[in-house]
# Entry
Amino acid sequence: MRVTHLSLTDFRNYAQVEVPFNPGPNLIVGSNGQGKTNLVEALGFLSTLGSHRVSTTAAMIRSGEDAAIIRAKLEYNGRDLLAEVQINRSGLNRAQVNRSVIKTRELPRYFSSVLFAPEDLALVRGDPSGRRRFLDQLLVLRSPRLTGVLADYDRVLRQRNSLLKSARASGLRTTQLGTLEVWDDRLVEFGSEIIDERAKLTDELGGPLRSAYEAVVDADHGPALLGALSILGSDDTLGSDEGTDVGTSSGGSAGTAGIAKEAGATAELFRAALSGVRRKELDRGMTLVGPHRDDVVFMLNALPARGYASHGESWSFALALKLAAAELLRRDSASGDPVLILDDVFAELDQSRRSRLAAAVLGFDQVLITAAVFEDVPKQLAAHTIHINAGEVVDG
# Structure
């Protein structure tokens, strides 16, 4: 898979821009604030329906405009596609593939990319919401049908929380108890699948993560991923997470033991956990266990990377995690490699790690790289260079 052409209208600082891309490495160069990252942010949105920089889509619309349009010509599975999305300041976004209207949530099935940017340091050092979002976005890229499962879980979670808040205010009545049990069933149905899929993904990432980390760092620091599941936590470990959305809430506590592999084991554990925290949920008016409160612990040198890893180690771990994700996608996909995007990465690396990273990514069908300084990027990645100035392509 690769991008052959990107067209933006009223996106960030671009009133209108047309950018051609080649197979292999493409280097986008420009001073800070000229619009380099805006180009790759637009492509990242096509494959994840989100931005690596902001949480709301309105920030991506050029000031004073009502909508932004992203159009990308793609080579996909041996055929050409035109993927388009209109991001609206008010109302729903709209999407098309080859001029036929599709549901916006279906876009990721047509374009697969993995983007690493300085903001990804928060994967290691930030709160659990970013790590949940990373796993869920990768799950959707590998299996687009999970978009619906995640959306269904989020909908059920909101409804259940609404009922719990109502019960807290008025006291739980018999009719509400019956309704709560119905929402419990749905929560367990969708939540168990998410938990199991995340667990499988975490296991599969382990090997590629170790290989990628060693390739970039040239040392074996034992990077590893450990699931931390709220349905395995005891009452006194339940934190103060006030979030309600899949992949967007801010906390979560949990045990780190594995889940049994028998069919239905996760659902049974989930039901038992809900029963165990029922009183606390009614007191607080919110759902206290489930995938919206889970985490994955990043380990380095047998210690949690968060709190123990240095800045350089954290950076290398986050980079290796994204390279591992790209490796999983290229193994799975019938449409070829994902497009690998490296946003302002090389400035943070010393010369030896720049060379090792270049060697690690050259095998991908297409790599898009942004840099403020041309000399920061190894020459083998600079064969096709696009120069950006004040929202315009000035050379390419």
The longest helix spans residues 174-217. The chain has a mean pLDDT of 89.
